[in-house]
Amino acid sequence: MPAARPRLLYVTDLAYEARGRRYCDEDIFLTSRLRARFDLALCHPLDATALLDAFDAVVVRNSGPVLGYQREYDAFRARALATGARVYNPLTGRADMAGKQYLLDLSAAGFPVIPTVGRAEELHLLPAAERYVVKPVLGADSLGLRTVPARQVAALATGQVLIQPRVDFVHEVSFYFVDDDFQYALYAPDPERRWELKPYAATAADLEFARRFIDWNDLGHGIQRVDACRTRDGGLLLVELEDLNPYLSLDALPEEARDAFVAAFTASLGRFVQGARGVLSPA
């Protein structure tokens, strides 16, 4: 009798609507390819806690911002940690998975991040700017983000938000990793059209920049997206390190690059599940 195939619970909100992106298309595509290797079921994030015990691993993909179901997400994390359930990405992430505090920590530690503070008494640490970006510490997907003139920013620095100078940048660029391996990069040539992405040829210096944050997060397994902006002087500054459920913009890739990502993702999941259930059946 052939060995049973690994069972994956794939968490996604197929009905989630995001500006400029169709999350559901990405997950329909990915699950259609993963079925060649795994027995797989899709579920809404609100159902994940009740179902996770029946699977070898849980894959959290385009599940949407957890702010809309924070209590249920906290219950899912608690259940997974208590039972030792294998969650991909692992729940040890130090970046967006845990809120935006990491931007304050990285900024204070001198990493190449958009300068960030959280309290009014720290505003003097930021470069002078005409406008500032204010975002909630527990924000996601631009929820609650505001751009305000300098005269208003002190009143908003309550400790519950992040304050950053509004950076005049050339473009935004994202670097996508599976485990510790770089896969591809995409950029938005027009800063006003964040999600109109094109393939980007990353340089050695670009990858050195991105790997600093992958190394810092030390996630081991999973998909991470390093979002950065290219400043007028040619440097890069971190905008966000997404380690919970990063959207992958696979539709912006040529077929060969998309297939290469799927192969890397499938292999990573195979290694991840193997840690829980012993040797897998051949692919």
How would you describe this structure to a colleague?
This protein is 29% helix and 26% strand. The chain has helices at residues 23-34, 48-51, 70-83, 101-108, 150-156, 204-217, 255-277; strands at residues 7-11, 39-43, 57-60, 87-88, 117-119, 131-136, 146-149, 158-165, 169-178, 181-188, 198-199, 223-231, 236-242. The strands form three sheets. The chain has a five-stranded antiparallel β-sheet with strand order 11-10-9-12-13, with helices on both faces. A hairpin with a 4-residue loop joins strand 12 (223-231) and strand 13 (236-242). It starts with 6 loop residues before the first strand and ends in a 6-residue tail after the last helix. 33% of the residues are buried.
Q: Roughly how many Å apart are the termini? A: 16 Å
| Strand-pairing-aware structural class | alpha+beta
Which strand order do you get reading across the main beta sheet? Answer: 11-10-9-12-13
Mean pLDDT level: 90
The string of secondary-structure elements, in order, is: EHEHEHEHEEEHEEEEHEEH
> Per the principal axes of the C-alpha atoms, what is the gross shape?
globular
Largest sheet: 5 strands, antiparallel
Question: How many helical elements?
Answer: 7
Strand content: 25-35%
Tell me the total number of β-strands. 13
Please estimate the helix content.
25-40%
Low-pLDDT runs:
278-283
> In angstroms, what is the radius of gyration?
19 Å
How is the secondary structure organized here?
Blueprint: E1 7-11, H1 23-34, E2 39-43, H2 48-51, E3 57-60, H3 70-83, E4 87-88, H4 101-108, E5 117-119, E6 131-136, E7 146-149, H5 150-156, E8 158-165, E9 169-178, E10 181-188, E11 198-199, H6 204-217, E12 223-231, E13 236-242, H7 255-277
Parallel strand pairs: 1-2, 1-3, 3-4
Antiparallel strand pairs: 5-8, 6-7, 6-8, 9-10, 9-12, 10-11, 12-13
